[in-house]
Amino acid sequence: MFLPLLLFLIAQDRPAEPPRFAECMDLATGDPAAGQANAVKWRGEGGGALARQCLGVAYANQGRWDSAAAAFEDAAREDELANGSKVADYWVQSGNAWLAAGNPVRARSAFDAALARATLTGLALGEAHLDRARALVAAGDMDGARNDIDKALSAAPGDPLAWLLSATLARRQGDLKRAAADIAEALRRSADDVSVQLEAGNIAAAAGDEANARTAWARVIELSPGSPAATSARTALEQFGATEK
Residue 80 class from Cβ within 10 Å (0-12 exposed, 13-18 middle, 19+ buried)? Predict the structure, then answer.
C-alpha cells in the first residue's frame, strides 16, 4: 500500500527537471543496475541532489532499501546546501525507504527532518504525517501515531488512506466507536479499495457484527479474488463457518 507514496513524490518532481534527470530516472526504473551506474557517474560530474535522488530510486528498484535511504538522505543534505526547494521531499523519500528496510527508528528521524522544514502543505503534509505514524506504530508508540494521524486528517481530510489508518489504529487501541466512524469515511471515499473493505470487516467482527463483517470480506474477495487481501478475508471468514470461494 505504502511504497506508491514514495514513487508518487518522485513522479511529481519529474516534469520540471532537466533532460539528464529524465534519462537517469528512466534507467533507474527500467534497468536499475544501469541506472545506478548512470547516477554514480552523474554524481561525480556534479549532478547534485538530483543525481543522488536518481541513485536512491535505482537502489530502491533493486530492493536495496538501506542504500536507497542513504542516497535520499544525501540528496536532502545536498539540496539544503544548495538552498533547494525539495529538502523535505527527499527526507520523506528517505523515511519511506527506511520503513521498507524495516528500520522504523531511522524512518522516524527522516520524517522528523521532513516535517521540521515546515514546507510541506496539503496532501504532501498529510502523507508525511501518515508515514511518520506508520513508523511510530512499528516502534510501538501508538499515542504518538494517533497524534500524527489526527494531523494528517486535518491536513488532507479527503485522503481515504488517512481514514483507513485512523480506523485501523482505533481498532487496535480498542476504540471501536472511533474505528467505525473512520472506516465509514474511508468507505465513502474509496469503497472499491480492498484494504478499506478488509478493515471494515475487521472492525465489524471486533464489534460482534457478523453480517457486516461477512459482507465486507465477501466484497474483498469479489473485488480481487487472487490478492493477499482476499486470502486474509477468506481466513477471517472461517471464524463464521462457511467461507467465500
Answer: middle
Q: CA-CA distance, 219 to 3, in Å (whole number)?
A: 24
The CA distance from 125 to 19, in Å, is 28
pLDDT tens digits, the chain, 245 residues: what are they? Answer: 344 444 444 444 444 678 899 999 999 999 999 999 999 999 999 999 999 999 999 999 999 999 999 999 999 999 999 999 999 999 999 999 999 999 999 999 999 999 999 999 999 999 999 999 999 999 999 999 999 999 999 999 999 999 999 999 999 999 999 999 999 999 999 999 999 999 999 999 999 999 999 999 999 999 999 999 999 999 999 988 755 55
Cell numbers at 4, concatenated: 506508491
For the chain, give every domain's residue range.
176-245
- Give the span between the Cα atoms of 159 and 185, in whole angstroms: 10
Residue 68's nearest CA partner among 41, 23, 103 is 103
Distances in Å between the alpha carbon of 224 and those of 162, 194, 220, 231? 22, 7, 6, 10
Q: How many CB atoms lie within 10 A of CB 79?
A: 22
Place of cell 554514480: 40
Q: Is 65 helix (H, G, I), strand (E, B) or coil?
A: helix
C-beta neighbour count of 176 within 10 angstroms: 17
CATH of domain 176-245: 1.25.40
Report the candidate in 110, 108, 124, 23 with the shortest Cα–Cα distance to residue 50: 23
